[in-house]
Design goal:
By secondary structure, this protein is mostly helical. It has 18 helices and no strands.
Length: 509
Amino acid sequence: MTSTETSLSGIPDAPSAAAGDRRRWFALAIVMTAAFMDLVDVTIVNIAIPSIRQDAGASVSQIQWITAGYALAFAAGLITGGRLGDIHGRKRLFLVGIGGFTFASALCGFAANPEMLVAARILQGGMAAMMVPQVLSIVHATFPAHERGKVFGLFGAVVGLGAVSGPLLGALLTEWNLFGLEWRPIFLINLPVGIMGLVLGSRFITESRAPRALKLDLVGVAMVVLGLLMLLYPLTRGEELDWPVWGYVSMAGAPLVFAALVAYERRKAARDGSPLVELSLFKVKSFAAGIAVQTVFGVGLGIFFLVWTLYMQTGLGWSPLRAGLTGVPFSLAVSTAAGLSVQKLVPRFGRGVLQAGALLMAVGVLLYLWEAERYGMGISSWQMALPLVVMGVGMGLIVAPLTDAVLSEVPREHAGSASGLINTVQQMGNALGLGLVSVVFFGVIGDHLRPEQVGPAFVDAFQHALGWVAAVMGVIFLLMFALPRRPAQHVEAAAELPTVGEKEPELVS
């Protein structure tokens, strides 16, 4: 999760004034519920993708865009959403975001065709980018420093609960087929939650603004979106369209757009000091390497989670509920290892913990590949448990301490901008990974399969995709050598933010 900063506009002592106000705990419950809703929405959709594909008749590229479109819109809007909250008020933007997210969820739930669902998911991601950056900002503006440790502990619990409950909730809602609505309740469940958050948020959340907010960089956002679309659209449509020439031209032009973005951001920084991307950060070797790690990690996760659910439900013919329950050991392993890595392991072993995580994920993927090949269509959930636990432990060792490791050598005045960029590039990597599913998964599935050939073809494609995921983990392991051996703890991007009079970071993870 990401967010912006910090103190109440014109009320420097607002956090201490709010310390005795019980309303702040209602505000906390509201913003935490919104954060939970976003977390669950990301994971709940994957488990329902096969049902959406079957019921709505979605094509290969459309099911990719149902997930990738959300990630792309979310990533592209994060920094802008944070700055809008700084300028116009965090409460106002939070209410706009949660209201828009709820409306987009209704559009998803009542989508008449796959095209409408894709468009609604993109809108939903954009609204999440307005809502999510305000969550921790509202916490910082509402709670005094001595209470924030307890609050961030609660936030961590919400993140863990979202990771565990999302797939299970998606499986149950899809399996139950409430009112004959098939997969639609996975989106419609957001309506009562969102409406309640909108009503209670308008009453209990206190407004806050940044005293010196950075300007918007809409041109920068447009260039990022253009470059990513030029790369992702041909990737997702290429297989269906037999890889037309325009697709290669578009993908070749994407790096040129990103080069133009760099040149523009340099001029913007010199002109008004408020670029979308703080390019000076890339002079810090550990940060540049960390951005690469986050991007590649997002690619690996984007590939794995989509092909995994297609493998279990379409390949093996399992029900959504069985697929969701199969993933429980993975989710529990991630949550457990994440807590241990931050509290016990990283302070003692430093960078080695993250590298061990990458190796464990690679080992888990290879073990999964071996079992998938050995047992074929007859594999059972319990046989998947060991590789999933190994992968989950590896992922937990990476996800929790990675941001601190990447930020540890970044100057404190750029901590917010840096952490916002970290979260953004991971989402972009995720979108890229989802786009690559056309190549690494659907690209090895033959056309015009007979019904009896579908399952084995998806199983074979899953095994092929796992090889790519293992290779991605190997690349991450090597990139981590550029991270500091012992991450310094001087950057307090998520715990303590500047008070009035200090320079504010843009976005904090």
